[in-house]
Amino acid sequence: MQSFVCKCGTSKCRGTLKKITAHDLKLQTEEASQLEMNTKLIEIKESFQEKNRMTSKQKTVINKYLKERKRKRNVANHKDMNETTKRLDLTSQNLPGTDRVSCLVLY
């Protein structure tokens, strides 16, 4: 009979924890950082509405946010271009209306 092994990985666990994968942990940290950034941006907006100016720290936070957003968009665009290229490579041969005919010779 096999002994109980908890999904958390420790040998003396009571089995109350559930397994968290690295991907799930990464998603949780990204969501937490996104929530934190949104909170900071809302605070900056409210402060700006009251004082009609921003501090240098607030400008730094906004610049950091804009650079990160630009980086994520570039990564997404790059992935999209790669997928488009893959799809076109998969369908570029023997399309209807092309002059090239591929032949399969059976002996």
Summarize the model shown:
The protein has 107 residues and is mostly helical. It is built from two helices and no strands. The N and C termini lie far apart (58 Å).
Measured distance between first and last alpha carbons: 58 Å
Oligomer, anyone?
A: single chain
Helical fraction: 55-70%
Residue runs with pLDDT of under 50 for 5 or more positions: none
Order of helices and strands: HH
Provide the β-strand percentage band.
under 5%
Give a short account of the largest sheet. none
Please supply descriptive tags for the structure shown above.
single chain; 107 residues; mainly alpha; 2 helices
If you had to describe this structure to a student in words, what would you say it looks like?
- By secondary structure, the protein is mostly helical.
- Helix 1 crosses helix 2 (56-91).
- The mean pLDDT is 78.
- The longest helix has 36 residues, at 56-91.
- The protein has a domain at 23-85.
- Helices cover 62% and strands 0% of the residues.
